[in-house]
Design brief:
By secondary structure, the chain is of the alpha+beta class. It is about 20% helix and about 25% strand.
Length: about 625
């Protein structure tokens, strides 16, 4: 009886909208969404997204002083009643930055912990999910779209292509793990309450103040162009298929080529049995020792072991991701609540980096984490190499009165983190250089760290390491190995070189030997049945060193001493001829490697397996 069998009728929806409008109008009159910097205390639960030259902030709550004194209102915070924006085409610091305040009609919901999905056009975003502030009645099931005007403003409208019938099949939840590809939005799990969706009934017990939080299954997908809203199974997400307080990130690597929608990586959070209460002892943290990866093309789940400076379990984190300059992809994880067996919240301030395809963690210097702890914040990548974090508070203070009235050490709740240098700042630099992987990340790869990855699944390995132009179904192997010798400036043919050497040699014995060696060589070049295996340690190390250190390849010097028919010289000739053929093989492979090195914008994993295709 917790979740009703059908949505409320039209009259109930109209009553809900009317009551929400009255609440919104009250706060529009008495609350400040952009308080003076000197009065600002905290901003939390907001969603943020970059559209063009502006960072947009929507939803969440804000707290502030009234003329330098604590508010006498019994509520320490209030819902954000406007959509805000910040300029990204000019530099600013967090004390003097000017927010743009965009009117928000009362019919548009202001929710906490919602998703913001960018439209494929790059000029609009959609909001999905979320929970009302202070246990007010949730809004009706609608999908709203914000369209930017290109100058830091914009307007709100309902999504014109999605039907109420389609929306009625989906339960709104809060604290889901959300992300997006270019044109599809994803929302996994979260928890449902009477304040997230009208189909969830409020508590019927005498303890009416106790809310019900239910862990929910499934992935909601929004195809933004068509407005199609669908569900997908999440049974591969941990032991229960649920997740709340975690984060998702779309990685544009692997996933099976042009048809693919990339891969989804899930980080942190808490998992629990389906429909279990938030207070249930069965809730358990999601460890960072293994990372869950989802391939939306084939609806396949993977779990990959990690190494390095692995974070302790935590939830209500924020994550951003950037493509590295050497074909890697780095995901930055900041803040959150560290899980403990006693379930006593401990807010943290560390920044960790998960580098792919190495699945290795690095930790930012300790001095960059002091005084920066927060949870329930949001963050975005801006200005090529900077992470801007918005809001957050210290939930370890336990009481809303305390953590909402605790002044944020950052003015206006804004912090700026340089992703390359891994250091915090109060200033945003609009002219910052492009992102480069942090030095510790580059060092790990240059020292051969990629060779130590213990892949849990061959398909997952290929999706990260092989070219994206080939579709890779799960549990199937590529049928055509790539040819590392393909390219311009081919090596001289072995037939010409061997013929030139044999021209000064008489007798059939040595000629037969040459034919035998030539036959063996061509047998070795014959394509084998494809299989996935790791190249030998020696081969992998040499190729990797040449790729990174640019060390000059050894040239091949052919001996030109005359050959003779004496038995000893015949034996020597055999040895010499074998050396010539071996040397030519090395030269040919070296030139192929140099051609590969000259190709631009290829990932390290791509290069690694393309130049070793004969081992697959």
């Amino acid at each position: 009886h917790i979740i009703s069998s059908s949505k409320n009728g039209k009259n109930d929806a109209e009553k809900t909208t009317s009551s929400l409008c009255l609440v919104r109008l009250f706060y529009l009159t008495f609350a400040e969404d952009i308080p003076p910097t000197s009065d600002f205390l905290r901003r939390n639960h907001a969603a943020a997204i970059v559209l063009g030259d502006y960072l947009y902030i929507d939803g969440g709550e804000v707290s502030h002083l009234d003329n330098g004194k604590n508010s006498t209102d019994k509520r320490a915070s209030h819902a954000l009643n406007h959509t805000l924006s910040l300029p990204l085409n000019i530099s600013w610091n967090n004390q003097t930055v000017a927010f743009n305040k965009i009117p928000k009609p009362p019919s548009v919901p202001s929710l906490n912990c919602q998703a913001a999905w960018r439209d494929p056009s790059g000029t609009a975003f959609y909001i999905w999910g979320g929970i009302t502030s202070y246990r007010t009645q949730p809004p009706p099931s609608e999908l709203w779209k914000f369209t930017a005007d290109g100058y830091g403003g914009g307007s709100w409208n309902k999504h014109e292509k999605i039907s109420s019938v389609s929306l009625g099949k989906h339960v709104r939840t809060s604290r889901g793990a959300w992300t997006q590809s270019k044109d599809v939005g994803y929302w996994l799990g979260g928890y449902g309450t009477a304040n997230t969706d009208t189909s969830i009934l409020p508590p019927q017990s005498s303890d009416g103040d106790k809310n019900i939080f239910l862990a929910v299954l499934g992935i909601t997908l929004l195809k933004m162009a068509s407005g199609e809203l669908t569900n997908s199974s999440s049974v591969g997400m941990g032991p229960f298929g649920t997740l709340w307080g975690g984060s998702a990130h779309h990685v544009p690597l692997g996933g099976g080529g042009e048809q693919s929608d990339g891969l989804l990586v899930f980080l942190g959070g808490v998992t629990a049995p389906v429909l279990s209460y938030l207070e249930s002892p069965d809730h358990r943290p999601v460890e960072f020792t293994n990372i869950t990866v989802y391939d939306p093309l084939y609806k396949k789940w993977y779990s990959q072991q990690t190494t390095g400076a692995i974070p302790t379990p935590r939830y209500q984190i924020c994550v951003v991701g950037v493509k590295g300059d050497n074909g890697t992809y780095e995901i930055f994880i900041y803040g959150g609540i560290s899980w403990s067996s006693a379930k006593t919240p401990k807010t943290v301030g560390e920044v960790y980096v998960l580098s792919l395809p190495g699945f290795v963690f690095f930790k930012a210097p300790v001095e960059q984490t002091l005084g920066k702890k927060r949870d329930d914040h949001t963050c975005v990548v801006a200005g090529k190499r900077q992470m801007i974090t918005i809001g957050g508070y210290d939930e370890s203070l336990r009481s809303p009165d305390r953590y909402w009235r605790d002044p944020d050490p950052w003015s206006n709740g804004l912090g700026v983190f340089d992703l390359t240098e891994m250091r915090w700042s109060n200033e945003y630099n609009a002219a910052a250089e492009g992102y480069k992987s942090p030095a510790v990340v580059k060092t790990w790869y240059s020292e051969g760290g990629l060779e130590s990855v213990a892949w849990s699944d061959n398909t997952l390995k290929r999706m990260f390491l092989e070219p994206q132009s080939t579709t890779i179904p799960p549990d199937q192997e590529s049928s055509t190995p790539s040819d590392p010798s393909t390219g311009t400036s081919p090596s001289p043919s072995l037939e010409i070189v061997v013929g030139a050497v044999l021209g000064g040699v008489g007798g059939g014995t040595l000629l037969a030997a040459a034919a035998f060696l030539f036959y063996r060589h061509h047998r070795k070049r014959k394509p084998k049945q494809p299989r996935l295996s790791s190249p030998t340690e020696t081969t992998r190390t040499k190729l990797y060193t040449n790729r990174w250190s640019k060390a000059p390849l050894k040239s091949c010097h052919l001996a030109q001493a005359p050959l003779s028919f004496q038995p000893t010289t015949i034996i020597a000739s055999w040895v010499q001829l074998m050396g010539i053929l071996s040397c030519l093989m090395v030269t040919r492979n070296a030139r192929a490697s140099n051609r590969v090195n000259s190709r631009q914008d290829k990932s390290m994993g791509d290069l690694f397996l393309r130049t070793n295709s004969h081992t697959r």
